[in-house]
């Protein structure tokens, strides 16, 4: 049985103790909480995701180490610019990686240290290349799915059939699937937004049979005194029985359980299981493209455009904040570059 880290474990293992007065590690005392504990608390108070919390804490640690363990309170815009410029110039990070580091430092200074930063005019920005997404043809999608089976097949069919991101699919709960209306409700997708997307009719029967098997597994867990899942925010406090209720269970549960401080839980399936299955299926299908689970989402959007659906509908199904993000799929339609017909074809 696995032991999955709780919030208390996470505080103990990933947050070093850095105190404002010395900038050096030290034991806990009656003094104010260490800096990274304050950052973690501020992130959770604002309902940032666990992944964002881990990423921000990592960047802040690297920033402190870059300046020889000096406390960030002693540093200014000059030192921040030096660090971010070093990421682009020396570490050759991508623009999105540099922007994430900048967001972490802005959060540290504005929300935790309560300091407004001046404009970082001397910052060396990493160049953001213009890229088009990798898209599979319909025959390639068919060949890829033909080399998958079981739960990976259902997950990948859902990614392609509904345009979901991988974690959005793996974090679906029983209550988020409506087999009668053929709808999928994505809770707290990217940017913390909820949305609805289509559930393919071809998947309804497969999902119905899959849920019967998951329900049987859940009943066995309950009989052993387990059967709980983690709930968002403080729902477990408000509804103490909810973690064991059927509607809150993961649709794609992990194969093993883990132990927290007071109960045995089951997490959702880890994303690496699907990523590995997709890579193996792509090789077996002879697809000469860099294929990942996210490629199926790109393919969903492109094929929807090819079928004549308007860009606003696709934007809503994908959960994009701005239509300009969705417009990138107009450049990969199955009509040549930018939809132009080559004179050779005439």
Core attributes:
single chain, 346 residues, mainly alpha, DNA polymerase, domain 1, hpI Integrase, Chain A, 2 domains, three-stranded antiparallel β-sheet, two-stranded antiparallel sheet, 14 helices, globular, disordered N terminus
Question: What would you note in describing this structure?
Answer:
The protein is mainly alpha-helical. It folds into 2 domains: 7-112, DNA polymerase, domain 1 (Orthogonal Bundle), CATH 1.10.150.130; 138-332, Intergrase catalytic core (hpI Integrase, Chain A, Orthogonal Bundle), CATH 1.10.443.10. The protein has helices spanning 7-14, 35-45, 50-66, 77-89, 95-112, 138-146, 150-162, 166-170, 201-223, 235-238, 271-285, 293-306, 311-318, 323-326; strands spanning 177-178, 183-186, 195-198, 253-259, 264-268. The strands form 2 sheets. Strands 1-2-3 form a 3-stranded antiparallel beta sheet. Strands 4-5 form a two-stranded antiparallel sheet. A hairpin with a 4-residue loop joins β1 (177-178) and β2 (183-186). α2 runs antiparallel to α3 and α3 (50-66) crosses α5 (95-112). The protein is globular and about 60 Å long. Mean pLDDT is 85; it is low at 1-17 and 19-29.
């Amino acid at each position: 049985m696995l032991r999955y880290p709780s919030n208390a474990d996470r505080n103990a293992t990933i947050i070093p103790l850095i105190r404002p007065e010395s900038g050096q590690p030290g034991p806990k005392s009656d003094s104010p909480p260490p800096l990274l504990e304050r950052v973690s608390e501020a992130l959770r108070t604002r309902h940032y995701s666990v992944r964002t919390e881990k990423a921000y804490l990592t960047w802040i640690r690297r920033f402190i180490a870059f300046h020889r363990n000096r406390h960030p309170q002693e540093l200014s815009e000059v030192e921040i610019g030096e660090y971010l410029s070093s990421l682009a110039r020396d570490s050759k990070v991508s623009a999105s990686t540099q922007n994430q580091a900048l967001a972490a430092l802005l959060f540290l200074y504005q929300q935790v240290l309560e300091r407004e930063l001046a404009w970082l005019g001397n910052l060396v920005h990493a160049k953001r290349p213009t890229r088009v997404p990798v898209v599979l043809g319909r025959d390639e999608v068919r060949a890829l799915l033909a080399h998958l089976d079981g739960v990976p097949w259902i997950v990948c069919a859902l990614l392609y059939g509904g345009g979901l991101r991988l974690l959005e699919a793996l974090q679906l709960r029983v209550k988020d699937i409506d087999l009668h209306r053929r709808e999928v409700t994505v809770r707290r997708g990217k940017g913390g937004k909820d949305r609805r997307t289509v559930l393919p009719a071809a998947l309804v029967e497969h999902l119905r049979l899959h849920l019967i098997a998951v329900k049987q597994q859940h009943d066995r867990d309950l009989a052993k005194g387990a059967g709980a899942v983690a709930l968002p925010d403080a729902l477990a406090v408000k509804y103490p029985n909810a973690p064991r209720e059927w509607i809150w269970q993961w649709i794609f549960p992990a194969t093993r359980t883990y132990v927290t401080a007071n109960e045995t839980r089951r997490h959702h399936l880890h994303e690496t299981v699907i990523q590995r299955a997709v890579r193996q299926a792509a090789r077996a299908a002879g697809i000469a493209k860099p294929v990942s689970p996210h490629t199926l989402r790109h393919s969903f959007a492109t094929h929807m455009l090819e079928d004549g659906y308007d860009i606003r509908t696709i934007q809503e199904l994908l959960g994009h904040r701005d239509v300009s993000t969705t417009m990138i799929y107009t450049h990969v339609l199955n009509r040549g570059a930018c939809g132009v017909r080559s004179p050779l074809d005439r």
